[in-house]
Amino acid sequence: MTPNLGHGCATTVAVMLEVTVSTSKPSTVRADALVLGVRSDDDGAEVSEALAAVGFTGKEGETAVFPAGDFGKVRTVVAVGLPAEPTAEQLRRAAAVGLRKASAAKASSVAMALHPAGVEEVGAIAEGAGLGAYRFDRYKTSDDDSRTNIESVQVLTPFGRQTTATAAAERAVVVARAVNAARDWVNTAPGDLRPPAFADAIAGLGTKGVDVSVWDEKRLAKEGCGGLLGVAAGSEVPPRLVRMTYSPAGATQHLALVGKGITFDSGGLSIKTGPGMQTMKMDMAGAAAVVAATTAIAELGLPVAVTAWACLAENMPSGSATRPGDVLTLRGGRTVEVHNTDAEGRLVLGDGLALAAESDADHVVDVATLTGACLVALGERTTGVLGNDDDLRERVLGAAELAGEPMWPLPIPEEIGKAVTSSTIADVRQHNPKPYGGTLYAAAFLREFVGEKAWAHLDIAGPAWNDGGVRDYTPTGGTGAAVRTLVRLAEDLAGA
Ligand code: BES
Ligand code: ZN
Ligand code: ZN
């Protein structure tokens, strides 16, 4: 397939299914497949004989797929093991696992009877289904996937006639679509999503209530955004700064979001190893997350103002690239002594955070695949949360817990804060003189640009990308990390 390098071609529409709620019983619902939650102590289940015959014990995550036979009006039953009182996260996972099994069994419509679902549970099941249905086939020229596309999911609940249940399913669809859009962008080949193309894709979203403005390289120069320009200096394509604003009537809180959008991180002149740059198309996952979250927040009509800045640049080596030793002047006039051109994320975020600091936002949150050190500290699946404000950090961690995204706090120790301002020739040093605490140093650097604002920094270097096989609702490749947490945070700030 010829790579498509034109502008405005970068958005692929994530697969999205129709989700409804229904008061139907598992035994009477019409669908190709029924996904049935079964507890280990559930002898009374109507399909228990069939389950026993295939050795199904009902352990969490266990599945059994069999023809429905005389049972109900469906063709296939997918039993999924669940504990007696499943958490929202267990329901999300079970829904995704069940949906994929149904898809492998050639279903296109699915009914989910995972739990006697209340309104909270309806949301979790719908979200798990929407996330689990994701697939990325933009570059496949033939359909070598034996799974079917699931077109519709009915979530069975005794509360199916209540508007709150329908609203929970609708919210879940909006959120899942946003996460899947972020995944699509991360998975897109980096040659197809260079900064101008990514900016065009964001500008082309057309979300109601969201204004988008794009700064090109001329405007960036005029506005003093030397971080973005410095990082992009080695690339044949210019950087872009995209601002999205959503300002609903009656909002009392204003959340600023800033995302790292390095569409490819080769390391620049401080070039990475071959294996080290293998996955570096994902280095724009922070920008994808803030854009997708802003879209979802607007689509949900949450009464909180949001301004998002996506800081887009390509980090490449060339004769025009920024050198170690160069000094850049970032937005607001602070000078930075560059030591390692592979620590580029903090340079583009410095511009974005300075702009957020100038705005009237009450809270600033940045999201970035910032440091390999965060993988060393917290492993591949946990986001590091740092910042300058205990209340905001706690809110982010609370939102992450509700969303089912593992996040953990990390400190910005005093001595690391001091090291950032220890450059002998500029205002700040870009890079830690010591090989320890790389994530903490990067955050201390960012703190220099946020002024007095309450700020939290999410280092998603690990969770943004899944190197392994699909697990539960997390696909291989781009995961859409942090989107769900940002939406929960906005809901929290909106008092929803
Ligand atoms: N994009 C990388 C961080 C990264 C590494 C994300 C692995 C995901 C997986 C970032 O720009 C980078 O290269 N950071 C350097 C910083 C160092 C030069 C101070 C790193 O982590 O090694
Ligand atoms: Zn880098
Ligand atoms: Zn990077």
Automatic annotation (TrEMBL):
Binds 2 manganese ions per subunit. Presumably involved in the processing and regular turnover of intracellular proteins. Catalyzes the removal of unsubstituted N-terminal amino acids from various peptides. The keyword Coiled coil does not apply. Pfam families: Peptidase_M17, Peptidase_M17_N. Its main location: cytoplasm. NCBIfam families: PRK00913.1-2. Belongs to the peptidase M17 family. The active site is at residues 272, 346. Mn(2+) 2 binds at residues 260, 265, 283, 344. Residues 340-347 form the Cytosol aminopeptidase domain. This is Probable cytosol aminopeptidase. It comes from the Bacteria. Keywords: Aminopeptidase, Cytoplasm, Hydrolase, Manganese, Metal-binding, Protease. Its EC number is 3.4.11.1, 3.4.11.10. It catalyses: Release of an N-terminal amino acid, Xaa-|-Yaa-, in which Xaa is preferably Leu, but may be other amino acids including Pro although not Arg or Lys, and Yaa may be Pro. Amino acid amides and methyl esters are also readily hydrolyzed, but rates on arylamides are exceedingly low; Release of an N-terminal amino acid, preferentially leucine, but not glutamic or aspartic acids. Its cofactor is Mn(2+). The keyword Aminoacyl-tRNA synthetase does not apply.
